[in-house]
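Need tokens for this chain, all 190 residues.
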Amino acid sequence: MKKPVTIIILGPVGSGKGTQANFLARKFGWEHISTGALLRNRIRIKDELGQELALIMKKGKLVPSWVVFTLTITHVSQYRWKGVVIDGSPRTLSESNMLDEALARLGRNNLIVLYLHISPKETMGRLLKRARSDDSAKSIKVRINVFKNQVMPVINHYRRKALVLEVDGEQSREKVFEEIINKLKESGVT
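Here are the structure tokens for all 190 residues:
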């Protein structure tokens, strides 16, 4: 029996990680685990941690790794025999190391990382159009820098392990999905 696949989708904010994760989950019956949605749901609890997370996210900063890791791995472990698509995590090398170890302990060694590449200019344009409360020009610039300084080392970590499939995220969402499907087929995942 083939081990269930774990797909991690990384890319700058606004690159379409959630959209592509939804497309993959629907097409293959995999579970979509969105760290952004998990964090927004956690904020709704409105306790001290929820309020702190809301403030951190409003500023465009990274939420502490232990919070993201705990939320993510709790959900991944619920789908032990089902493919999962994780969008937006890991965002730091420490998170990637924790996630790698946890996935190995769960027997989820069939791992692929999709990197949706878009330029900073494209990121800014997309986010200013979607007008979400945490998408001010100032916070977007912070998030672009966070991606460059924190997430790119994670992508390079997975590149060294030959797990990264890079996709041109500046195409239409349908073309991006088509490219993802083709790359997953070429890599033997689907």
